[in-house]
Structure formats: C-alpha cells, structure tokens
Design a protein that fits this description.
heterodimer, A: about 120 residues, mainly alpha, Arc Repressor Mutant, subunit A, 3-stranded antiparallel β-sheet, 3 strands, about 10% strand, rod-shaped, B: about 140 residues, alpha+beta, Alpha-D-Glucose-1,6-Bisphosphate, Chain A, domain 4, 7-stranded antiparallel β-sheet, 2 helices, 7 strands, globular
Chain lengths: ~120, ~140
C-alpha cells in the first residue's frame, strides 16, 4: 500500500478520527488517549498502530512516559486529492452548464427568428 | 472494495436548462464540452454496464468501468488515474428533472468508511478541512 492509501485507511474510522482530533489539541499519553473510548485498550493500540503506519502520529519517550503527538503533514496529501478533484469537476460542470445555456439561447433566438416574419405579414 | 460505503467524496450540483434525457445524453457525448470525455486526446468509450472507458489528456491516462447506465436518471462508473494512487474511485452522476431544468449531481467518492452508520454526511471533508484549518492557523501563529 502506498502512503496515500495508508492515510486514507487510517482516517476512515471514526475512532481514529476522534484520536486525531484529540491529538490536534496537543500530545497525550496512551491512557489519556484511550480514556474517552468505550473499547478495549487492545483496540486502541491497533488504532494507534494504523495511525503510526500512516505517519500521522509519533511517539516520544520522556523519562518513563511515552507521549504521542500528531503529525498533520500526511493529511494535506488527502486534502489535496479532494481539492484537486473538486476543482476538476467544478471546471467540467461549469463548461457543461454553459453549453446547455448557450443551446437554450440559440433555440430561443431561432424561435424569435421564426416568429418575426409572421409578425411582419400581419 | 465495495462501492457502497464510500465517504471521502467530492459532491457537486448544477441545474442544467434542459430535460434530463438531453442532459444524460450530453454527459455521454464526447462532442459536448464539459463532460470528461470531451477533453480526451485519445478516447475509448463504451457506456454500457461493464463497458470500459479509457482516455488520456496531456499523457495522463484515466480508466474505468461503467457499473450503472440508467437513462435518463443515473450513470455510475469506476475511475482510476494517477491521481487516485491505485485506488478504484467511484463516480456517480444523477439527473433529476425539475420542471424544465435538470438537477445534476456528481459524486466522486474514493474510500470505504468503516463507520457503518455514517450519520455524518460529508464527514471526511469536514474533518479534513477542520484539521487543516487548525494546523494552518497554528503554522501562521508560529511565524
């Protein structure tokens, strides 16, 4: 799996998104991270491993404690994926809409053109 | 990878001044500007269920397989390009007649969510935008 896939997988689960949101407020210890979740500590460990594999968190040993902090850079990759496609499809659909608007104007002017000769006769 | 539970997505709506049949046909006609096929330098397009498309623009290849072609209401196909990094993303276009116009909705979705309920529509984008805003303002504050 490439890095983007790892990041997408990592942020695809609501618990992992909640962990990221918590860590966005600052580094935390394992138990502080696990506390709000009603899941086994094992499950939290697995979630953290997936976040680590995606490069989204790093662990730093401070004395006897391990502090876990967020590395947001990989998220930019995902955001750029989304924004690139947003731009691409918006540009496409703008052109598509313009085409039909233009067609509508052409039809209207054709109808007017047909009406005019009659108006002259009467 | 199932196509059903994808949440990271781009959703765009447009109101097109034409019937849903005309808009549907326009979306599949390479001569109509704005659809993806129109910008192709090289195009192979077979818009039937299990039909494939291949197109390149500026040497960037795009591939996909049509999974639903239901005139005049819905087109669905997979989408792979260098931008999807090996992921088979999914494009769904729906056409809803609204009076004389057609509401066209395009959803480009890329990844299954393990959250079965998915009560939060657009959760991904909200999540990404919120976090990145947070970090961008954090970076700005550092300078």
């Amino acid at each position: 799996m490439d890095q983007l896939t790892n990041v997408l997988t990592a942020i695809s689960h609501p618990t992992r998104r909640a962990i990221i949101e918590k860590l966005a407020r600052g580094p935390a210890r394992f138990l502080e991270i696990a506390e709000p979740f009603d899941v086994a500590l094992n499950a939290v460990t697995k979630h953290l491993k997936l976040l680590e594999r995606a490069g989204l968190i790093e662990r730093e040993k401070q004395g006897r404690e391990v502090h876990i902090s967020l590395r947001p850079e990989p998220l930019r990759q995902v955001a750029s994926w989304v924004h690139e496609y947003e731009q691409f499809w918006n540009e496409r659909l703008d052109q598509f809409e313009d085409y039909f608007k233009h067609q509508q104007l052409k039809e209207k002017s054709l109808k007017k053109g047909k009406k005019n000769p009659k108006e002259i006769k009467t | 990878m199932s196509n059903s539970n994808r949440t990271i997505e781009v959703r765009i709506e447009r109101t097109i001044p034409a019937s849903s049949g005309a808009v549907f046909d326009g979306w599949l006609d390479p001569k109509v500007p704005g659809n993806p096929w129109n910008m192709a330098d090289k195009l192979l397009l077979n818009p039937i269920v299990d039909g494939f498309f291949y197109w390149t623009t500026e040497r960037t290849p795009h591939y996909g397989r049509f999974t639903e072609v239901n005139r005049p209401s819905r087109i669905e196909h997979t989408w792979m390009s260098p931008n999807t990094s090996g992921l088979e993303s999914n494009v769904t276009v729906t056409f809803q007649q609204k009076g004389e116009d057609t509401l066209m909705t395009l959803v480009h979705a890329g990844l299954p969510d393990t959250d079965g309920g998915r009560s939060h529509n657009g959760g991904w984008n909200y999540f990404l935008d919120k976090l990145l805003d947070h970090f961008e303002s954090g970076t700005k504050n550092q300078h």
